[in-house]
């Protein structure tokens, strides 16, 4: 198993284990998303729910989004498409502690998590755009070379 696949599989297996869900290999994600139930509602950090309920909501959205990540077999692509919702889950959980937490140190940590994870999401999205553009350009060159 290639290192990137191993890392992605370990992250996914850990997320599944934390929620008492069976681990599903990456190649089965496309099939699973077609038979899975409806996506959970979007995460909203609100004082109308206790922290534990917000954390559960954030985990449910993250898990569903990771499961539905568009995989194409390229380790870099698959890693990034799964890490974006993983990072968004961290942001959502940090928002939940900002709603309910009073400890200044943890609130500061949560604000840092939001800033850093959002920055990393932006970096990953930019990587995907460059990667997808590079793949398309490469394919176009190959197609034109055969004409």
UniProtKB/TrEMBL annotation:
Residues of the DUF305 domain: 78-142
Parts forming coiled coils: none
Matches recorded under InterPro entries: DUF305_CopM-like (IPR005183), Ferritin-like (IPR012347)
Sorted UniProt keywords: Signal
Transmembrane segments: none
Residues of the signal peptide: 1-18
Pfam family, one: DUF305
Protein name per the record: DUF305 domain-containing protein
Species of the source: Pseudoduganella lurida
